[in-house]
Amino acid sequence: MIVVEDLHKHFGGFHAVDGASLEIGAGSITGLIGPNGAGKTTLFNVIAGRLKPTSGRVLMAGEDITGLAPHDLFHKGLLRTFQIAHEFGSMTVRENLMMVPSAQSGETLWNAWFRRGAVAAEERAIRDKADEVLEFLTISHLADERAANISGGQKKLLELGRTMMVDAKIVFLDEVGAGVNRTLLNTIGDAIRRLNTERGYTFCVIEHDMDFIGSLCNPVICMAEGRVLAQGTVDEVKNDERVIEAYLGTGLKNKVVAHG
Amino acid sequence: MDILNALVAFANFVFVPGLAYGAQIALGALGATLIYGILRFSNFAHGDTMALGTTFAILVTWGFQALGITFGFLPTALLALPFAIIMTAAFVLGTDRVVYRFYRRQKAAPTILVIVSLGVMFIMNGLNRFIIGVGEINFADGARFVITAGDFRAMTGLTEGLAIKATQAITVVTAVIVVGLLFWFLQKTRTGKSMRAFSDNEDLALLSGINPDRVVQVTWIIAAGLATIAGVLYGLDKSFKAFTYFQLLLPIFAAAVVGGLGNPLGAIAGGFIVAFSEVMVTYAWKKVLTYLVPESMAPDGLVQLMSTDYKFAVSFTILIIVLLFLPTGIFKGKSA
Ligand SMILES: Nc1ncnc2c1ncn2[C@@H]1O[C@H](COP(=O)(O)OP(=O)(O)OP(=O)(O)O)[C@@H](O)[C@H]1O
Ligand SMILES: [Mg+2]
């Protein structure tokens, strides 16, 4: 689905992404792990068009999408969430979700004036959809709350909800579970799995919670210092010497050794 | 004590002029605040956009008058307004294409864009003077008064008269219609919502599939429309002079900042706050007071806080007070 070829992103002299090459298979839920500052978010930013790469290419289904604008990528079905939740603060939670499906007939002034009925029907459908998503994320009670006022964890859910408003092809989730409680994290995990099997979404998930990654993702890619360190099943990556050294630490290594 | 006459004098010299002036400032501030919200810089060329829009309106008005087309008791300029808006919008979109887009692509800092807009301002100012000259132009035709002071006196038998100029009534009615349309657009249409979304959080708007070029274009068109309308209304009410519009920049930005930059509702409130402050501070209250206090206490002086020559100091003072004590304005804008 997505192929990243020798991608570099430099900030001044600092190489945040330093020759990363990886592949995200169509229909997979790929995990992306790595220590803080490994360049995971920067990689997402480059893939999703928020930052221009210094060099390298990004392909989506064989097509070169390097440097395309975020809104163009959105229309190709590439969505992402932010590690630090973003929201349209002056709008309600429901309106935030309703902003997502674009190219609606209400878009043109002509339709807004003269095809009121059609526009209204469409709005209603989008509204129902938004309510469904809120229900699913167990935040229906926040529908009419101003998005600026909801909690950090709730904003994370809103981020996820946004990707559920359209038929995406691939969704990049940047620590969507951080700051969200256990029960809800499981719900989110189920949601991701269902979207994957029922709707065929491909996912790329950044998480620091290894249990969450373990139960959800295959394969798992580990990054460090802007490069891909290891790739494979969760267990393979977990037991990789370099990964243990760079990320998981010797504490876990001992645990892994002790267990197994 | 003569409360009725005092009230009429107040309405005649303070309330009605303040209302009309406030509506003009509010429309100007609305355009400036929209640009700030979406494009994220204070557009110093906004005053001259108003001037250029008015110039276009005057030219079209003259054209209509030459052809013998008038608008009955309404000024011909209102008929010319749609054409002037289209011309101004085209000019402003051209400016964006040639100048601002370059800096947007470079992700230039707002301070740089402000200076760029200053350059655009000088060019527009020069161009405008080249087209229409520097002289005073009076282009208001149609009826002069809705009600004259004499009629009012005859009707009510009061000593004081209340005159309402046609241009004042037109200003207020037009402003109400325009503001109504604008808020309908921002609240109800998809494009309007995209603009609000873009103003709230640009990054997220982009990732929600909102096309930034389109949002920017629509914003310029609306700002050009608002500027032209504000300019024409101001010109009808006072008279047109290429220079005066440049001076309106101060009250307009004072209004936008008072209301909270980027906040349309705030711009309107700010417009009236600035306008009424200006009118009240520079009005000689002697007449109104004489009606209100016993004869023995009637004031000798004019009871004028400030000469009208200093009216821009009022905006300036308001601006400073707001920036010191309420930097995001009364309606919580994006901070000044
Ligand atoms: N805009 C920027 N300018 C300069 N340096 C940046 C910028 N964005 C990221 N960096 C640097 O790039 C490195 C990688 O950051 P990134 O956010 O991609 O890490 P990450 O893997 O997502 O970490 P975390 O797990 O903490 O989220 C960091 O050292 C960071 O300081
Ligand atoms: Mg990160």
From TrEMBL, chain A:
GO-annotated cellular components: plasma membrane
SUPFAM superfamilies (UniProt xref): P-loop containing nucleoside triphosphate hydrolases
One Pfam family it belongs to: ABC_tran
InterPro entries hit by this protein: AAA+_ATPase, ABC_AA/LPS_Transport, ABC_transporter-like_ATP-bd, ABC_transporter-like_CS, BCA_ABC_TP_C, P-loop_NTPase
Keyword field: ATP-binding, Nucleotide-binding, Transport
Domain ABC transporter: 2-250
PROSITE patterns: ABC_TRANSPORTER_1, ABC_TRANSPORTER_2
GO molecular function: ATP binding; ATP hydrolysis activity
Protein name: ABC transporter ATP-binding protein
Protein's organism: Fertoeibacter niger
From TrEMBL, chain B:
Topological category with respect to the lipid bilayer: Multi-pass membrane protein
Transmembrane helix recorded as keyword: yes
Gene Ontology biological process terms from the UniProt entry: D-alanine transmembrane transport; L-alanine transport; L-isoleucine import across plasma membrane
The keyword Membrane belongs to this UniProt entry's keyword annotation: yes
Keyword line: Amino-acid transport, Cell inner membrane, Cell membrane, Membrane, Transmembrane, Transmembrane helix, Transport
Family in the record: Belongs to the binding-protein-dependent transport system permease family. LivHM subfamily.
Protein name: Branched-chain amino acid ABC transporter permease
Annotated organism of origin: Fertoeibacter niger
